[in-house]
Every structure is written in C-alpha cells, then in structure tokens.
C-alpha cells in the first residue's frame, strides 16, 4: 500500500535515478518497467558492450533507456576536478580520475554535480562500496551528524519500520537519538504516524546491563527534546507490540502495545530481527532506506529481485520528491 501511494506521488515528475549496475539483468528488467510506467527517468551505467550483451542474453530491450559510459563521459575532466575539491587533499587528480572509473564513484558524482537526482546501487556491490562514495562526496545533510538506515516491513495492510539494520554497528546514546529522529521522520514520509519503541532485553528497568542503560539514556534524551512523535522504552519486543504484555510490563505507556517503529540497540540485533521477520514471518522487507545523506542514495541487497529494485527506485525518487 505504501509503495503504491509513493509511486503515485513520484509518477510523471521526471526524477532521474542512476543505476550503477547497468549490466545486470535484474536492473535492466526493473528500469524497463520504471520507464514504461513513467515512474522515474532511469540512467544505466556501464559500457555499451556490457549493457547490450546483458540485454541480448536475457531478451530485454533497453534501447529507450538513457545510458552513460563512465569511460567516455564528456565531463570527465570537470568531474575529476570537482572530486579533488570534495576530497580536500585526501586524493589528488590522478587518484580521482582512477576512482571515477568505478560506477559507484562515477554515479555518486553524477548526483553530486546535479546530473541526476538520486542513485540506486548494490545489486552486485557490497553495502560499503555503495555508501563509501556517498559519505565521501555527497556527505551528510546539514544538521545530520550521521547516516543510518531503516527497513519498511509490509504484510497485507500492516506495516512497520525498523532501524538501524545495516549501518551503525554499536551506536551510542547520542547516536541512537539521531537514528530515532531520522527513522521517525522517514516513517512520517511513508505515511506512518510513528509510535517508536527503543528495544532491549529489558522492559522499563526489569533488567540491567550496558545495552539497557544506553537505550534508557537515549529515551530520556528524546523525551527532553521538542519531538513530534511518541517514543518510549526501553522495552522488549513483545511489550512493544502486545497490549496484553504491555499492560503487565509497561502500564501507562502510550507506545507499549501499539508501537509501529522499532529502534534496535545495535546492528547485530537489527539485522537479525528484520531478516527473521522477512524469512520466517512472511513480511516483505523494503530497504535499506538510507537516512541523513545530502541526496537520495540507496543500497540494494545482492540477492535482490527486479521487483525489489523497482520498489527501491520508487523510494529513492520519493526521497527526492518528498524530502525524506
């Protein structure tokens, strides 16, 4: 439902999204449909030979899709010089010329220089390979001290938001505050009114430990801030989603038993949690949606399908259109 609504909001707006792996059949299938449905204006990166060979092998027609070969782009000199400025003495001109031979760096520079509105990559690259150029070149948005991620979990008419599941390994209380604010903002842009639970193995002080302490401290800091969403914790997952359990473990909490947005204490629990929901619970996991960057850049799972790429392209376009 959320994806359909977002698709309606971005359709026909001509938002230009770069796809770093133009030689991948899943990417080609997705961009053909995106172009046909006028959802975005896709740009495939890769050599003409690579793109054509993939299309021919898979019976695909990409003739109507814009394609850019990083090796022959007519603004390569300008791009390399701009990258030198952005790297501020960390890379010289020769190093920058070499870096932009990679489609990840090249595509990120297309976004940074305004040739494209957003980027989607990672069908064959690691998360680090997609995010590193974004952090180095596009950087974080003003007022955003870090980049985080969230997943949208959908099953029928039900939907939940989970973060951070792919970026921050062991966030501090301050970082958890930022992750919570970013994730609640994304939830609102997705049309979900966030009721945010900060999760732990303890509910309202029922157990002790370093993890419990940092989640409790993050909640205290959030409740002192002028935020526009409900938040509570620390709490166990059953307390967050079950009214019956919440009445015993967190009586009086307006979030417990009704939470729809969940913040995990570390990357391990977040990554495991969303994958359990997806693989055993039958929830569709859409993401990771990157938060805090100065432009819409998102990562794909290397096991993604063309339909998942299609949906993440919609999310990326929505970040441009709605300011997610």
UniProtKB/TrEMBL annotation:
Pathway: Metabolic intermediate biosynthesis; acetyl-CoA biosynthesis; acetyl-CoA from acetate: step 2/2. Keywords: Acyltransferase, Transferase. Its EC number is 2.3.1.8. InterPro entries: P_Ac_Bu_trans, P_AcTrfase, P_AcTrfase_dom1, P_AcTrfase_dom2, Phos_Acetyltrans/Butyryltrans, PTA_PTB. It catalyses: acetyl-CoA + phosphate = acetyl phosphate + CoA. Residues 2-317 form the Phosphate acetyl/butaryl transferase domain. It is an enzyme of class 2 (transferase). GO terms for molecular function: phosphate acetyltransferase activity. Pfam families: PTA_PTB. Belongs to the phosphate acetyltransferase and butyryltransferase family. This is Phosphate acetyltransferase. It comes from Faecalicoccus acidiformans. The gene is pta.
């Amino acid at each position: 439902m959320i994806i359909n609504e977002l698709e309606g909001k971005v359709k026909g707006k001509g938002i230009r999204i770069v796809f770093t792996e133009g030689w991948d059949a899943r990417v080609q299938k997705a961009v053909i449909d995106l172009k046909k449905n006028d959802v975005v204006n896709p740009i495939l990166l890769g050599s003409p030979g690579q793109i054509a060979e993939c299309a021919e092998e898979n019976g695909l027609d990409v003739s109507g899709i814009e394609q850019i070969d990083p090796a022959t782009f007519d603004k390569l000199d300008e791009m390399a010089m701009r990258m030198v400025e952005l790297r501020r003495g960390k890379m010289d001109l020769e190093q920058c010329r070499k870096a932009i031979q990679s489609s990840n760096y090249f595509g990120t520079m297309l976004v940074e220089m305004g040739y494209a509105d957003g980027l989607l990559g990672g069908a064959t690259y690691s998360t680090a390979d997609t995010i590193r150029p974004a952090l180095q070149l596009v950087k974080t948005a003003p007022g955003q001290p870090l980049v985080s991620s969230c997943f949208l979990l959908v099953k029928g008419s039900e939907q939940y938001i989970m973060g951070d599941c792919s970026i921050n390994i062991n966030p501090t209380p301050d970082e958890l505050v930022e992750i919570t604010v970013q994730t609640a903002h994304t939830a609102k842009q997705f049309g979900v009114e966030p009721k945010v639970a900060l999760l732990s193995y303890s509910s309202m002080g029922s157990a002790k430990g370093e993890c419990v302490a940092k989640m409790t401290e993050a909640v205290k800091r959030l409740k002192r801030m002028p935020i526009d969403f409900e938040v509570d914790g620390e709490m166990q997952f059953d307390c967050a989603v079950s009214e019956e359990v919440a009445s015993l473990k967190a009586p009086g909490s307006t979030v417990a038993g009704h939470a729809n947005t969940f913040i995990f204490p570390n990357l391990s629990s977040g990554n495991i949690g969303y994958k359990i929901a997806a693989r055993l619970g039958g929830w569709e996991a859409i993401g990771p949606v990157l938060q805090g960057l100065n432009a819409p850049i998102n990562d794909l799972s290397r096991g993604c399908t063309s339909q998942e790429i299609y949906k993440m392209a919609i999310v990326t376009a929505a970040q441009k259109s709605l300011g997610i």
